[in-house]
Design a protein that fits this description.
single chain, 185 residues, mainly beta, OB fold (Dihydrolipoamide Acetyltransferase, E2P), six-stranded antiparallel beta sheet, 2% helix, flat, elongation factor, translation elongation factor activity, Elong-fact-P_C, cytoplasm, protein biosynthesis
Length: 185
C-alpha cells in the first residue's frame, strides 16, 4: 500500500477496483480544511482518462506491471495482433485496450506490451515515431512569414498540424504522447 505522499507520475495503482496509471497529480492545501490530492488517471483496461479528488493520507494498492517487447503485425476487425519478440507468441488486443495508440501503429513497429497478472492490457509506444504524410495541401511561397501550420494526414489516418513546407510523401517524426509534429525526416 502506498500513501498519497508517495504518488508519482506513471505509477500504477488500483483505484476504485480498476488498474489505473497516474497521468498527473497535485497536492492542494485548502484554507481551513485538510489537504486534498487531485489526480488525473488513465484506466489501464479501457484507456479512459478521468479526474478524481481524494483526501491526503489515503492509501492505494500499488500494482506491478510487466513489460515485454512486441512487434505490431496486423489489424483484424477491431482486434490488433502483436508478436512477442522473445517467445513468438501471438498477442491480440482490442481497439478499446489500445485507445489512442492505434493511431500510431505501423507494420513491424516495435513497442512494449503491458501485462497485469500475465494478462495483456495495453501497449506503451516509443516516445517518437516516423510516419509518412499521405495528403496535405500544398504550401505556397511566401506563406512562412507568420510561421503557420496546416493539417497533414499520415499513413495511419492520424491528422497532425505541420509547417507549410511539408508536402505529400514526406516522412515526419511525431511525438506519441502529444500527437504533435517534431521534425521532418
Amino acid at each position: 500500500m502506498i500513501s498519497t505522499g508517495d504518488l508519482k507520475k506513471n505509477l500504477a495503482i488500483e483505484f476504485e477496483g480498476q488498474p489505473c496509471n497516474i497521468i498527473e497529480w497535485q497536492h492542494v492545501k485548502i484554507g481551513r480544511g485538510g489537504a486534498i490530492v487531485r489526480m488525473k488517471l488513465r484506466n489501464l483496461r479501457t484507456g479512459a482518462i478521468f479526474e478524481r479528488t481524494c483526501d491526503a493520507g489515503e492509501k492505494f494498492k500499488r500494482l506491478y506491471l510487466d513489460r515485454s517487447k512486441v512487434t505490431y503485425q496486423y489489424p483484424e476487425g477491431n482486434q490488433y495482433h502483436f508478436m512477442d519478440t522473445s517467445t513468438y507468441e501471438d498477442i491480440v488486443l482490442t481497439e478499446q485496450q489500445l485507445g489512442d495508440a492505434k493511431a500510431y501503429l505501423i507494420d513491424n513497429l516495435e513497442l512494449d506490451i503491458v501485462r497485469l497478472d500475465e494478462e495483456p492490457i495495453s501497449v506503451e509506444l516509443p516516445e517518437k515515431i516516423v510516419l509518412q504524410v499521405t495528403y496535405t495541401e500544398p504550401g505556397f511561397k511566401g506563406d512562412t512569414a507568420t510561421g503557420g501550420t496546416k493539417p497533414a494526414t499520415t499513413e495511419t489516418g492520424l491528422v497532425v498540424q505541420v509547417p507549410l513546407f511539408i508536402s505529400t510523401g514526406d516522412s515526419i517524426r511525431v511525438n506519441t504522447s502529444t500527437g504533435a509534429y517534431v521534425e521532418r525526416v
